[in-house]
Write a structure and sequence with these properties.
alpha+beta, globular
């Protein structure tokens, strides 16, 4: 354990942290055998996801009980937070490896630093390997609560984790790791039965025949997610009621969300459905709404596929029908930060799977192979995909929406989101932290919009993008709108 000197600098072996104006006890943990950190607290979801991506912790720097000396808010700017920068210098990755840093403040706000600057000047870091210096924004919220964070990194401490991973798919051989190919291999398209307990099972001929006997309910998850992660929070009694209402005909569609665009996702679903008769109601979340719209509206050359499959009703939950700026490559770091922060502050079902997708993006960005990501490109506002989708639409499906204007109760998260730069991302428009309400429901060129029948969460409800389904109001809307 070490403390900052009068210059705000602390050095522990070959790691240097510079944070003028910050006080606190600094510790550095090294990985034990197998990559786990000695004495680390419960962060199993992150560690499990890292293990599946062949990533390991190089070191973890913790500032316990951080104290910010001097003013932390500028009252002339409405009490917005003041920010300064910490500089972390660490040994660079060994040959054949790359590196990233995940910093998490005492309120659970997470930030990824994927490329570090080479340390060519000044006092060198101890050790023979080259070093990197990471510039880490340090934000002090106007007020600090004493509650603890329930997520992958506990609250009240600043925690900086240095992560290393192979450049190639396997150490010492093969091409560079690429998230597009990983997503296609990790998330193959599959349609399965979704039971009242959230259990998934394969569909045999008998199950497909039962699906054709009456209306069925289809669930379609969103970006980085899976069926488990997207719908696992739905109340058990709601799942049971829907299962009874549809007489057991509830199915879910898992698919790659990074590699393929939603029309390709829809194509694969329709190819699986084939010549079977399906009358569908759909509940979809986030990007899954674009997939669902493509199934219902049949853009491009989908019209001749699955001719006996039709859609009656779609419930669009937090769907970016006019896109989200966070999908633009220039904002991918912000997208990853927001997803990681939400999982840290408000963990939910399927967290490890979502973290795995985030880590795959981080790894691919670091080795410079994050390109041609059609699944994300499809959500870029005014991009080519949305121009193709948002036109006069065929079909008779009825659209309804569940939306939220999110205002966090966590003071640190609130301060972070209200930072001038981040607030401008959505041009101050009401949003659920990932998508604006205007994108979810407003005019976009499609004859199905604007959506006028909707349920809206207010700022006081504090419902963000990933947490619609555990809410009672969401269950009520689903049961009001889905006839079975």
């Amino acid at each position: 354990m070490a403390t900052f000197d009068d210059r705000g600098r602390v050095e522990v072996d070959d790691i240097v942290l510079e944070a003028p104006g910050l006080e606190g006890e600094v510790t550095v943990e090294r990985p034990a055998a197998g990559g786990a950190l000695r004495g680390s607290r419960a962060r199993r979801a992150l560690d499990e996801a890292m293990g599946r991506l062949d990533m390991q912790s190089q070191a973890e720097v913790t500032v316990a009980g951080p104290r910010h000396m001097g003013p932390i808010a500028d009252e002339a700017r409405g009490g917005q937070v003041a920010t300064t920068t910490m500089r972390l210098t660490v040994p660079g990755p060994p040959k054949g490896y790359e590196q990233a840093v995940l910093s998490t403040d005492e309120h659970g706000v997470a930030t990824w630093h994927v490329k570090g600057a080479q340390n060519h000047g000044g006092k060198p870091v101890r050790g023979s390997r080259r070093s990197r210096t990471y510039e880490i924004e340090r934000t002090a919220a106007p007020a600090r609560g004493r509650g603890t964070t329930r997520g992958i990194i506990p609250g009240l401490d600043k925690v900086i984790r240095v992560v290393t991973f192979p450049i190639a798919w396997a150490v010492g051989k093969g091409a560079r790791f690429a998230v597009r190919e990983w997503d296609q291999g990790r998330h193959p398209p599959q349609v399965r039965a979704y039971g009242p307990k959230g259990d998934l099972s394969d569909l045999d001929d008998k199950a497909w025949k039962r699906l054709s006997a009456g209306p069925a309910l289809l669930l379609v998850h969103g970006t980085f997610s899976t069926t488990e992660g997207g719908f696992g929070g739905l109340a058990a009694d709601t799942r049971k009621a829907l299962d009874e209402r549809y007489k057991g005909r509830v199915i879910a569609y898992d698919h790659p969300t990074i590699a393929d665009d939603p029309i390709e996702n829809a194509r694969r679903f329709l190819e699986i459905a084939g010549d079977r008769r399906l009358e569908l109601d759909v509940v979809c979340h986030s990007r899954g709404g674009l997939v669902s719209r493509a199934i219902a509206e049949r853009p491009a050359d989908l019209a001749d596929l699955a001719p006996k499959t039709g859609v009656r009703n779609i419930v669009l939950v937090g769907v970016p029908s006019a896109g989200t700026i966070l999908a633009d490559a220039k904002h991918w770091n912000e997208l990853l930060d927001r997803f990681t922060t939400v999982l840290n502050v408000l963990p939910g079902p399927g967290m490890s799977d979502v973290l795995e997708s985030i880590l795959a993006m981080v790894r691919s960005i670091a080795v410079e192979t994050a390109s041609n990501l059609k699944g994300l490109d499809a959500m870029v506002p005014k991009g080519a995909f949305l121009k193709r989708l948002n036109v006069a639409a065929d079909g008779e499906a009825s659209y309804r929406a569940i939306v939220s204007d999110f205002e966090p109760k966590n003071p640190g998260l609130k301060a972070w989101l209200n930072d001038a730069t981040r607030d401008l991302i959505f041009d101050h428009k009401p949003n659920d932290m990932m998508v604006t309400i205007e994108s979810m429901t407003g005019k976009n060129g499609s004859s199905r919009f604007p959506v006028t029948e909707l349920r809206e969460f207010r700022p006081r409800d504090a419902i963000e993008h990933a947490h619609y389904f555990p809410e009672k109001a969401t269950s009520k809307a689903l049961l009001d709108w889905l006839p079975g």
